């Protein structure tokens, strides 16, 4: 089984990168998953952004701490292959996992959100314990949407040997630590952002810079510019990942 996980798709440059490049490589993968929580202008998931991701070849869209920033998501999440963090409390719209199936093989995809410097959600560690007891599939991929690298690593090590792969998102900066944990789980602290790196984590440089220089609130504006496609490839066999590698494509100048 070959899986492509696309890092946080940010605003128009990110959507453009996915639309331009993914159709050219889509047939190489059994499943394609993308984090789309920043795809609608940098905050949230809109119906139009979701449509572009799906038309390009994305099978499942994941969210994060901006899950509820766009009103469209409340309807989409009840009917479409979209997941939010598993560790939201009971009664939250949507679901925290999805099982994808293709050619007789199944992939459990779950997302948990970290609690360090983010929202005070339920325990992601025990939440994954419960999920793995209740749901089974040939392979399992866990996305950790978190701010602190220590929390991402802790969750990776906690799940080591029990899931095929643990991939981090949210900080928008790709890390060079893709590899395997001691018990065989593939791991990367952050897949990175699909968008323009002529920005401050996807935001317009001037407005973000003003926030640092003045300590005053600034109106958010997504950056425009040259797009980069950041993803992570997984090759899985016999219930586990056997290869993991970053995948990068740049929009032609």
TrEMBL record:
Protein's UniProt keywords contain Nucleus? no
Top-level taxon: Bacteria
Listed CDD domains: MPP_DR1281
Q: Which residues form the active site?
A: 66 (proton donor)
- The UniProt annotation places Fe cation 2 binding at 37, 65, 145, 170
Q: Where are the transmembrane segments?
A: none
GO-annotated molecular function: 2',3'-cyclic-nucleotide 3'-phosphodiesterase activity; metal ion binding
Any coiled-coil regions, as ranges: none
The residues that the entry says bind Fe cation 1 are 8, 37-38, 172
Keyword Ligase appears in the UniProt entry: no
**Which key words are in the record?**
Metal-binding
Which SUPFAM superfamilies does its entry note? Metallo-dependent phosphatases
Q: Which Pfam families is this protein grouped with?
A: YmdB
The record's listing under PANTHER family reads: 2',3'-CYCLIC-NUCLEOTIDE 2'-PHOSPHODIESTERASE
Q: What is the protein's name according to its record?
A: Metallophosphoesterase
């Amino acid at each position: 089984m070959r899986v492509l996980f696309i890092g946080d798709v940010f605003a128009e440059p990110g959507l453009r990168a996915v639309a331009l490049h993914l159709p050219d490589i889509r047939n190489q993968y059994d499943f394609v998953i993308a984090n789309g929580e920043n795809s609608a202008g940098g905050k949230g998931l809109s119906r139009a952004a979701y449509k572009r991701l799906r038309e390009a070849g994305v099978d499942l869209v994941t969210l994060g701490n901006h899950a509820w920033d766009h009103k469209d998501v409340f309807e989409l999440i009840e009917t479409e292959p979209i997941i939010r963090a598993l560790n939201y409390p009971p009664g939250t719209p949507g679901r925290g996992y999805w099982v994808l199936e293709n050619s007789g093989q199944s992939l459990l995809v779950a997302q948990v959100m970290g609690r360090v410097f983010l929202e005070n959600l339920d325990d992601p560690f025990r939440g994954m314990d419960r999920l793995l007891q209740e749901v089974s599939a040939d392979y399992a991929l866990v996305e950790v949407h978190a701010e602190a690298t220590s929390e991402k690593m802790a969750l990776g090590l906690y799940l080591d040997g029990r899931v095929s792969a643990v991939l981090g998102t949210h900080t928008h900066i790709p890390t060079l630590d893709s590899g395997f944990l001691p018990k065989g789980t593939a791991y990367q602290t952050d897949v990175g952002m699909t968008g323009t790196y002529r920005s401050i984590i996807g935001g317009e440089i001037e407005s973000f810079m003003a926030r640092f220089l003045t300590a005053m609130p600034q109106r958010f504006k997504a950056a425009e510019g040259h797009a980069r496609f950041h993803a992570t490839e997984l090759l899985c066999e016999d219930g586990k990942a056997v290869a993991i590698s970053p995948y990068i494509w740049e929009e032609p100048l």
